[in-house]
Amino acid sequence: MNRTINNFHSIPLPSLFKELHSSNHGLSQKEALRRLKKYGLNEIKEIGKIRWYQILLRQFLNIMMGVLAVAMVVSFWVGETLDAGAILVIIIINAVIGFIQEYKAEKAVEALKKMSAPFGLVIRDGKRVRIPAQNLVPGDILVLEEGEQIPADGRLLELAQMQTIEASLTGES
After folding, report:
1. Which of 25-29, 81-85, 87-91 has the lowest mean pLDDT?
2. Residues 24, 141 contacting (CB under 8 angstroms)
3. d(CA 43, CA 57)
């Protein structure tokens, strides 16, 4: 399992088990610990808290804003103050819209981290075991029961009358 598996949803199940060195009996505890050391915790990595003013400053630090700023200065320098003012308004509107979108995206990632399931029911050594969701590893067989949150990406092996509520991801009521 040295390479990244693409399109794992369309690989035939026996081939997927072979690629992940797993089975429908789950992983052994020893193998799960080895994979945990190799791949790390199942959690959203937080690179560092980004402050609102950093997001706002980033809106001005791109090539397009630089081109607009140069155009504004040149327009003002040649006496086209109306054009320079229009370009300044465009720069401000662009920065505000970019700031709002990026700020909302940061808040959405924070909300997703808070909503993630704290535990997962997996099959280890052929038995069902409840473990912290951060200890899930590639190849784990996750058992979902009614009313549970899904603690990791995965592929459905078998199901009966499954329904999901995706409102927390899509924002719909």
Report:
1. 25-29
2. yes
3. 28
